[in-house]
Fold NAD(P)H-dependent dehydrogenase/reductase.
Amino acid sequence: MLDILRDRRSIRKYKDVKIDEQIIDQLKEAALRSPSSRGINPWRLLFITDKDMLEVLSRAKQSGSGFLKGASLGVVVIARDEESDVWIEDCSIASIILQLTGQSLGLGSCWIQIRNRMHNDGQTSEDYIRKALDLPEGSKVECMIAFGYPDEIKEPHPKSELEYGKILES
Ligand SMILES: Cc1cc2nc3c(=O)[nH]c(=O)nc-3n(C[C@H](O)[C@H](O)[C@H](O)COP(=O)(O)O)c2cc1C
């Protein structure tokens, strides 16, 4: 696991290569094994490989989401907030588990923040996605995770640059 964390970087450029169903199944299994508060699992996960829909979703924000159109897979991380008061934490845990599992399977990925973000002056990114995917009223969309085989090389963050000052002495 530490080796995966050492190599982990956000990857936003992807090869035009399909991800096998078997790999997608492993991502699904990993996400469903995520811990959640009281085991409620308030998340819903939409796995999207349709290129037209990925392009639509890539326009959820004016910046920071465009690269989703070049991805082979996008996972939309949705929650029913009435199921848990800590759905944000639960969704975040499932999201990072998805990303790290993807990396272990040779995939690059990047988180696209949706909650608290705007599509334009009059519409939230959440509303834009709810409409695009015809999600039930009241669904919360925390983020989308873009996946694909990396088409960029990013050096790991060197250990010497880690912010050890943020580890407080007791
Ligand atoms: C909560 C969260 C929200 C993020 N939102 C975005 C985003 O909307 N668009 C994007 O391109 N990257 C996003 N990122 C990726 C960060 O920009 C990235 O993790 C950070 O710059 C550090 O780079 P690294 O992941 O390569 O170490 C997000 C990451 C997190 C954890």
Q: What stands out?
A: The pocket of flavin mononucleotide is lined by residues 9-10, 12, 64, 110-113 (CB under 6 Å). The mean pLDDT is 98. The domain at 2-166 is CATH 3.40.109.10 (NADH Oxidase). The longest strand covers residues 139-148.
